[in-house]
């Protein structure tokens, strides 16, 4: 388990947005071309009250201003499709939410019309990888048990904390998949 640095996101942002931006900053510090990373989001005050030694180990003293503490989980299994892996997760009650950071290639909406229709998934991935307008992005998506969602997208070509886009509906498919990990 590792805790992320307590510095960073603006205090005016919602608690979930701050958690997403904290995870984005952590991932940015690790650099690009990294595997997907999964995080449990735990209520910081509850963690301090119920697990004071763990909270202390994670540097979460009384001055910790974050509502959610991201705790990185074990490395995702190599070679297993992300949707299949997410389908195997069940979170304990102490986990308030979860987040995932993943890198992908994306095309602008203007390129959608030129996508060949007869490609399988591997062929499509290869076609996108060769497209001159492709963008490398890192997406960080978080969901809470109560249904709240937030996402951050960072373009590799604009790799700066001031260029990170945030919003609840930026990556709806991934948010849906993460929310399903809380379905009983």
Describe this structure in words.
This protein has 184 residues and is α+β, with helices and mostly antiparallel strands. The protein is built from 6 helices and 6 strands. Strands 2-1-3-4-5-6 form a 6-stranded antiparallel sheet. A hairpin with a 4-residue loop joins strand 4 and strand 5. The longest helix has 16 residues. The protein is globular and about 55 Å long. The two termini are 25 Å apart.
Give the averaged pLDDT, no decimals: 83
Query: What fraction of residues sit in β-strands?
Result: 15-25%
Shape: globular
What series of H and E elements makes up the topology?
A: HEHHEHEHEEEH
Strand tally: 6
Main β-sheet, in a few words?
6 strands, antiparallel
Low-confidence stretches: 1-9
Helix content: 25-40%
- CA radius of gyration is 17 Å
Strand order of the largest sheet: 2-1-3-4-5-6
Intertermini distance: 25 Å
In short:
A six-stranded antiparallel β-sheet has the order 2-1-3-4-5-6. The chain is built from six helices and six strands, in the order αβααβαβαβββα. With 184 residues, it is of the alpha+beta class.
Supply database-style keywords.
184 residues; alpha+beta; 6-stranded antiparallel sheet; 6 strands; 24% strand
Secondary-structure map:
Blueprint: H1 15-30, E1 37-43, H2 44-50, H3 52-57, E2 68-72, H4 82-86, E3 95-106, H5 121-130, E4 135-144, E5 149-155, E6 165-167, H6 172-180
Antiparallel strand pairs: 1-2, 1-3, 3-4, 4-5, 5-6
């Amino acid at each position: 388990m590792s805790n992320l640095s307590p510095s960073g996101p603006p205090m005016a942002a919602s608690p979930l947005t701050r958690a997403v931006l904290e995870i984005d900053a952590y991932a940015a510090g690790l650099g690009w071309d990294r595997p997907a990373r999964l995080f449990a989001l735990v209520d910081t005050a509850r963690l301090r009250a119920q697990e004071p030694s763990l909270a202390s180990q994670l540097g979460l003293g009384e001055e910790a201003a974050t509502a959610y503490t991201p705790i990185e989980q074990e490395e995702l299994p190599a070679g297993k499709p992300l949707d299949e892996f997410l389908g195997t997760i069940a979170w304990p009650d102490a986990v308030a939410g979860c987040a995932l950071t993943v890198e992908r290639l994306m095309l602008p909406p203007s390129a959608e019309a030129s996508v060949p229709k007869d490609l399988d998934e591997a062929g499509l991935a290869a076609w996108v990888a060769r497209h001159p307008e492709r963008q490398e992005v890192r997406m960080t998506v978080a969901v809470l048990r109560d249904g709240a969602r937030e996402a951050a997208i960072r373009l590799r070509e604009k790799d700066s904390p001031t260029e990170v886009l945030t919003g609840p509906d930026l990556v709806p498919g991934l948010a849906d998949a993460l929310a399903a990990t809380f379905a009983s």
